[in-house]
Amino acid sequence: MYVRGTVAGAVETKSVNGSELAEVPVRLDRERDDADDGPATDDSLAGDGGTAESESAVDDGETTVAEHETTTLTLWGKWTESADLLEPGMELLVTNAAEKTFRGEDRYATTGDSYVVVEPSFLVNVTAIRNWVECPRLYYLNKLSGVPLNYPVVKGTLVHEVFGDLLRGRDLEESIDARVEERGLELGLLGESPESVAEDVRENAGAIEGWLEQGRLTEEDSWRSEQLLISETFGIRGRADAIRRGAPVELKTGKNLKKEPRFKDKVQAACYALMLEEHGGDVDLGTLLYTKNSALDRNEETGDLTPAKEFTMGDGLLKFVVRLRNELAAMEIKGDVPTGYEGSAKCEYCFEQDTCMVVSGRLDQESKAGQIGQALPDEELEYFERFYRAIEEERREVHREYAKLWKQDAAERADDDRALIDLEFVEKRPLDEGRWELHARRTSGATSKIREGDFVLASDGHPVRGNAEHARIERLDEDQVVLTADEPVEVTRLDVYPSELTTDRLLAALHDALLKGDERRKDVLFGRTDPEFEPVEEPFIDNNAAQNEAVTKAVGARDCALIHGPPGTGKTYTIARAIRAMVERGERVLLSAFTNRAVDNALEAVLEQLEERGEIDADRVVRVGSESGVRDDMEPYRLERAGDPEDRLAELQNAQVVAATTATCGSRVMKEQAFDVALVDEAAQLTEPGTHAAINLADRFVLVGDHEQLPPVVRAENDLTESLFERLIELHPDAGVMLDRQYRMNQRIQAFASREFYDGALRPAEPEVAARTLDDLEGVTRDALPAALRDPVAFVDVEGDGGQYTDSEEAAEIADLIETYEAAGLERSEIGIIAPFRAQVSEISTHVPDDVAVDTVDRFQGSSQELIVVSFTATGTLEGPIFEDYRRINVALTRPKRALVLVGDASALGSDPVYGRMLEWAQA
Ligand SMILES: Nc1ncnc2c1ncn2[C@@H]1O[C@H](COP(=O)(O)OP(=O)(O)OP(=O)(O)O)[C@@H](O)[C@H]1O
């Protein structure tokens, strides 16, 4: 029996007849019988025969479902260690529990076959457990600073890749050459030659190849390389290097001449064993491959002939691993920081002792290694703690996304835009390198977030319980999908795979900003000093005073400059002009933004500026990003990672302008780069640590954005929702310039946004802009429109159908409007429709022609259209969230150039002051 619940009170630990036990009051979520539809865990982990306790259990197979009932759960023996971690409110799961009736109350207890899992929905990475067993403080330090670029790490990755290739039947030499070539850029940064690296990898992979060959000759082996495993029961996830005959095989670069595998390596293999058993396997063996062990190392003690060391996967080890994981999960849930005293590792043997002492000293944290250095000032410590917590909350949200992989059924995932379901598997085609191309047919035209170039979970039905594999989407058409993957999954479903990478990088950026950051930079960030500017006399832009001032500030800033650019005010143009001026001064510039789209957009403008002047050859401009992220026309500038290390390095090092998203700025490669200045576009959409990721790399920085438009996109509601841009504009108003002339909207369209969001300061840049109407477009006459639509701003009152997230009446009205505008000569490509909810976007899409763009505000930010139609989807009262944040309405209303039509229920909208003023303006 599988018992799951929430701790409802204080835990009592006792000793009965020499046995330790802990009584935990729990409120049951629900209870399930073995025969229930739960995961395979119970069956597969049941082992052979229960203990005395489980035999005495009352288990007649007719377990009732008890919602929110409070009862007592007794944890026996070593599980009392996990009980010590519990606090009221924590989640608890017990497998193979026994039920007993005690004084008329149903109680539960662990049996000899039970596992106790604390906070099962907190998904711990296998590598984290491995670090934790070495030293909990080491786990924390790794989490804070990320893994830097260094040769042992890159070599380790290469050896793993070659191992995977060997398992898939690729030739050793061919694999080594290809894999070393792929890492050209990293090797260049590390100053390594391809020949010596290949030799090194050969030394490590050669022995494995020999061992594999031997295995193939003597036994029937079934291998699978790199398996992604997620456990909904144990709250663990990870990627096993390989599975042989259903048991985990872990590869370790290096030597181990002891008879036994290293303990932390066993722990890692045991994590995979747990997950394999959950998926129905029966694992009694683990294998560690130490790549540098060879026949030559044979000695008296080990008699070792091969790199492989096998060990028995005992019950005790598996349970120990679950308890370790419980310690880690409980600490994270409580928000505690490990000191190192939790474990028994000796600091004097630790390579990280110095780092540990410095971090402990600067952050004023208790640590077993001790502290050195002076603690950060209080406000910096407070900032670190506040953002650390906020980032961890964000991580918790990512975990909730993972949990949806099993908590939601296929249809719910599809409705949530997170899965493509009901695919029909067509075929698998082997590719040269032992990988596979998978083809499936789409049976429904459903939309989803999944796009070409994305990495997804491809499964044969269930992303966690079925056979699932990481796959890349090569093509995604209306009726088919083509994927590439390491293993030939008979794919029928694709799921968005949540990633903690962003969260990890935010944490590292926070760490670097505070612990490695320049003191003067921090004085400015914390308001201890004002930003300074050097005088710059040169004029840059002669027809727009605010833009000229912005470039002057950006160029002259010793610390930072802030450019506030409302819609259509020439942010991109100003950025490009500023970068040209910096390049002319011989500076090295980082150009960054939150999205790839914004980076490419700005880069295009920079290239125009530079090429026009012929000042630098475009060879010195580099775009860092993945092939799928970078726009096709920017591909020629994209930095190729594969190739000769020296060439790749030179390409990056010589680049005077490097453009990359802020997420990429946190990558190992980019973290090795240094710039004179970082220019960050869309800065109001970035969290503070997200901004640090880019500006940490430069001596000074320029942030460009508009805090009256969309805020940072985050899952959790906390300090991450305010951007550094917004905070600094308030803290250092003198470092800012607002661009106040817009080049987009007709005068009448901009009036409301200007008044409501920019204190009336926004103006059309030129008379031509102020006076633009649909009449200017070829073949369009406003006279063909009904009188009510001839004004550049119109309101169409629709009472609506009362739905919360959709409104079919508004959708039908919008379809009529589109026909009307088409009849007046407007092209479909000149029209955009904005709705507050995805559900309404879908609803409208079914009413209007396919080639009219319909989307949410978030997708429209940064773009514009001749005509914009906004569907408010609000009827009756305004209780629903509609455009939940007024900044969204600002974005929606400032997308059109020549015409704007608002569609909604006037009486509902009139009940809110801002929407009320909007109505007055639209109906004027
Ligand atoms: N000083 C200027 N002189 C002439 N045209 C300009 C000037 N500044 C901007 N423009 C033009 O105005 C238009 C909008 O500029 P740009 O794309 O730079 O605006 P933006 O603020 O980045 O827009 P968005 O709000 O969409 O991000 C472009 O066509 C650009 O060429």
TrEMBL record:
Keyword Mitochondrion assigned: no
Domain DNA2/NAM7 helicase helicase: 544-641, 652-715
Stretches assigned to the DNA2/NAM7 helicase-like C-terminal domain: 721-906
EC number of the protein: 3.6.4.12
Domain DNA replication factor Dna2 N-terminal residues, every copy: 67-220
Reactions it catalyzes: ATP + H2O = ADP + phosphate + H(+)
Keywords: 4Fe-4S, ATP-binding, DNA damage, DNA repair, DNA replication, DNA-binding, Helicase, Hydrolase, Iron, Iron-sulfur, Metal-binding, Multifunctional enzyme, Nuclease, Nucleotide-binding
Annotated region described as Disordered, given as residue ranges: 23-64
Family per similarity comment: Belongs to the DNA2/NAM7 helicase family.
Descriptive protein name: DNA helicase
